Structures are given as C-alpha cells and as structure tokens.
Amino acid sequence: MIDWLTPYIDPALDVASWICFIIGGFYLIVGSIGMIRLPDFWARLHGAGVVDTLATELFILGMILQSGWSIVTIKLVLIGVFLFFTSPTSTHAVANAAWLAGIRPKNMKQQAPLTGNQEKSS
Amino acid sequence: MYEIATLSIFISIVLILVRLFLGPTLYDRVLAVNSFGTVTVLLIGVLGFLTGRPDFLDIAILYALINFISTIAILKFFRYRALGLDSAYTDESIDASTPDDASQPTRSQEIPHD
CB of B29 within 8 Å of any CB in chain A? Predict the structure, then answer.
C-alpha cells in the first residue's frame, strides 16, 4: 500500500511547505503593516499578535515539513512550542504594563484617574 | 521557496523597524522589539535551510529564550526603574507593605509609575 505512494511523498511535502510559507509570509507582512497603520497602541497589539503566533507557527511548520525525521525536526518543534507559549505571554505583559502605566485606548470613556502621575494618552 | 520566505521576513523586519523608530509611546517600542526578536528567530531558521545547512537552530532556540527573558526584564525595569529586588524595596515611590507584593505585582495593586 505504501509502495505506490513513495514517489508522491516528496512533491506533496514540497507543496505543503510552499503553502505554509506563502500563508505565513502573507500574515507576516499583513501583521507588520498593521503594526504601522493601526491608530493606537491597543490596536497595534493585534498586529503584533498575528506576527508573533500565527505567522511564526506557519513558518516553523513549513520548515518541519522540509526537514524530515532528524534532530533538526526536534529543534524546530522545541522552538515552535516555546514561541507558542512565550509570545502571548510577552504580549500580555506589554499590554499589562501599558495599562498600569496609564495608556488608554483612544475612544475609551474617561474613567477615574489612576494613582500614577504619568500623562494620559487620551 | 526559501528565497520568498526570506524576502517576506526582510520586508516584515523593515516594517517593524519603522514602528520601532517612530513609536509614540515606550510600549510600542517594546512591542516592536519583541516582534523583531521573534522574526529574527524565524530568519535564523530559514537562512539555515536556504544555505542547506540547518545547523543554526541551536542559536535560534537560544535567541527565542533570550528574547522572552529580555522583554520581561525590560518591562520590569520600566516599572521599577531597577532590576534587583533590593533596589525595588528601597525605592521610595513604591509602597512595599509586604515583600511578596513587590516582587510579584498584581493588577489590583496600584503602584505609582515614574
């Protein structure tokens, strides 16, 4: 059953890797454009989230499909798992620090002032 | 295939650097540095595959680790203006009522920021 499949495995892996790289590159550029074009720090977090998680995991998946079964695959899986957990954590840390520093979204209603003397962004 | 991936990574790096240099607030720049580190990890891996010798992935793992730790350290420095715990305690702008609260700040605890 496997024998007739063997000449098709490598082109299929190439095609899958192409798809991963192209979609990953699309999301990478779209997220970077979003980090420039979006009007607010809280809106730019979304662009950074797209770059940090989706595009990165797609690129690493494409590289995993090209590397076969070797030590390179294990290293790529390690990088993927680590980035999958730490990128949302660091994005949340930046957002939490910005919130505590008094930066607020642009169209947000005025709340009671925080206990900081940092200037408000609104 | 890898050329197109490298090209998109370079375009993304240029756009992130634009945001890094014209970010109006401090936290825009921290966010841009974090994304820049993540994209650099990708660039190291893809360049290894492009040259046919994917041996630089150890450096990519190390860079991912250092990127996360440095982001957390930079944010802690921005908040406390010090990296050590002793300096954070002796800072007069922080009400260190209990020692655990100063080392692990929560959201409900309103610490005045510089």
Answer: no
